[in-house]
Design a protein that fits this description.
Layout: H1 3-9, H2 18-27, E1 29-33, E2 38-40, E3 48-54, E4 57-63, E5 66-73, E6 78-79, H3 81-85, E7 93-96, E8 100-106, H4 107-116, H5 118-140, H6 146-161, E9 163-165, E10 168-172, H7 176-183, H8 187-199, E11 204-206, E12 211-214, H9 217-224
Helix pairs in contact: 1-2, 4-5, 6-7, 6-9, 7-8
Length: about 230
């Protein structure tokens, strides 16, 4: 892969110098996983950072006999950095929601890269702060109506990973259980709200191709913004 393409695909690498990108790509290992395959397992020691070249994954935590989906990541994102940076076992699983292609960088190489390139180090901190802010936003949304919370999830997926199409932003058709977990509402509520959004023409679900078209993205954004910061 060309360094320019890699830099454009991954926001983390947008400020890295060309020498850093060339060195990183020369050290990277390619991986491919089918739907449902575990990419990373909880309690495994962090020995690499993973870059999602294509496809979608879910970050999952096991609670007793149940599995709770914490986040959904798509093309251009990365994961595994926390276990690498604090040298501890991973606290979550990562499962492929679609066929995925990844690049992995070993812990040692990734740490070397951060020390070699101050701009990349700074960018890494920025993105980790952004993830923390997103987590804080989810806490603020907890008392909001389910439809608002689900719209917020859909908007985030569309903004971060959506691909432009003739029908609007295109995202993966995510199982409702995973969508409900991430949104922190029930599966039944998720199903009803998705049906209502389809009836309004705000989105369209293509189960054959396993995609969702966010047709009226502006309306979804408006719905997602209807919560009180003091609630």
């Amino acid at each position: 892969m060309e360094t320019e393409v890699f830099s454009e695909l991954f926001p983390l690498m947008s400020t890295a110098n060309p020498q850093t990108l060339e060195w990183l790509l020369s050290m990277a290992t390619k991986h491919e996983y089918p739907i449902g395959r575990a990419v990373l397992m909880e309690d495994a020691w962090g020995n690499a950072v993973y870059f999602l070249m294509s496809g979608w994954v879910k970050v999952r935590r096991t609670v007793g006999e149940d599995a709770l989906t914490l986040a959904i990541l798509g093309r251009g994102d990365f994961f595994g950095e926390m276990a690498v940076l604090d040298e501890s076992p991973r606290s979550t699983d990562v499962i492929a929601l679609s066929p995925v292609k990844l690049l992995s960088i070993s812990r040692e190489r990734f740490i070397q890269i951060l020390f070699k390139d101050p701009q990349l180090h700074h960018r890494m901190l920025q993105l980790m702060v952004r993830r923390l802010r997103h987590a804080n936003m989810r806490l603020q949304l907890r008392s909001s109506p389910p439809a608002v919370k689900l719209a917020h999830t859909l908007v985030n997926l569309g903004e971060n990973y959506g691909q432009e199409s003739h029908k609007g932003k295109e995202i993966l058709y995510i199982p409702y259980k995973d969508l409900a977990d991430v949104t922190e509402i029930g599966v039944e509520e998720t199903t009803k709200i998705m049906e209502k959004l389809q009836e309004r023409g705000w989105l369209e679900i293509d189960t054959i191709n396993q995609v969702v078209y966010l047709i009226n993205f502006k309306q979804l954004v408006n719905l997602a913004s209807k919560f009180s910061l003091n609630s």
